[in-house]
Each structure stands twice: as C-alpha cells, then as structure tokens.
Amino acid sequence: MQIANLLAGVLIVSSISGCANPSKPPEPLAALRGQAVTLEGIAEARKLGAALRGDGFEVWIDRLSEWPREWAGRRVRVTGVLEERNDLPVFVQKPGEPAASGIPVPEGTDLREASRRYVVRDANWSLIR
Fold first, then answer.
1. Whole-Å CA distances, 110 to 90, 91, 106, 107, 123
2. Where are the domains of the chain?
3. What is the pLDDT of residues 17-34, one digit of tens each?
4. What is the C-alpha to C-alpha distance for residues 65 and 15, in angstroms, rounded to an integer?
5. 103-105 and 90-92 strand pairing
6. Backbone region of residue 15 per phi and psi (left: phi > 0; alpha: psi in -120 to 50; beta: other values)
7. How far apart are CA 108 and CA 129, in angstroms?
8. Which range, 20-29, 92-101, 113-122, has the best average confidence (pLDDT)?
9. Which of 49, 75, 86, 125 is within CB 3.0–4.6 Å of 115 for a Cys-Cys bond?
C-alpha cells in the first residue's frame, strides 16, 4: 500500500460534508472502491451489523455483527479495503400488496442503486480518544 494513496483517501474522506441520504455515499467515497482507506466516525449498530457513520457517509464493517458494547456511540477509526455491494433488501411496496420484509422504496426507484452499500473488509479498528 502506498502511503500517498492512503493519505489521499483520508483527505478525500475527511473533506466530505453533509449528504441528504447517508445510505447513499457521496461520489468521493465511491471513487475509493477497492482501495485501502482510513475512515473516522461514530460506531453504530444496524440490522445488517456494525456500521461507521461519518460526516456525510455510512459504511458497514465486514464480518462484524456488532461493536463491543462499550464502543457504541463512540468515535472510531477504521482501516481496511472499501467495497461496494448491492445486497440491501429493497422493494417497491405496491398498494394492496402484503408488506414485504426489507426497505420500501418509491415506485420508479432504481432497485440496484437503492440496494447499494459500502463495506470495509479486512478491517482494523480503534477507539479515538
């Protein structure tokens, strides 16, 4: 891993500001797919596992079902490889149909795009004190 690439990734990620939909990462984060990244944010629990919420982004930590109890809500630094996955359970809820499990989205939504999430694999993490 080249230190210049890592520093560039950290600078890009730390420059990200507000995002209308935190589950849809801004393009600078998307540009880091497949690269080693270091992200800082708040450790949060999600139905799909441990997540890191930063300034304008949200990523899941691969193979981590939950943060240690004392880490929840605290600032964490995560380092690993950023991947894009299209595995969120999204569906269009149509009137009169039984409710499905997953995330309802409006009719006309691009389901592939709506199912996208970012995951950090081969992750190492530490508390920021």
1. 10, 10, 9, 9, 30
2. 3-84+116-127
3. 333 344 444 456 889 999
4. 28
5. parallel
6. alpha
7. 45
8. 113-122
9. 86
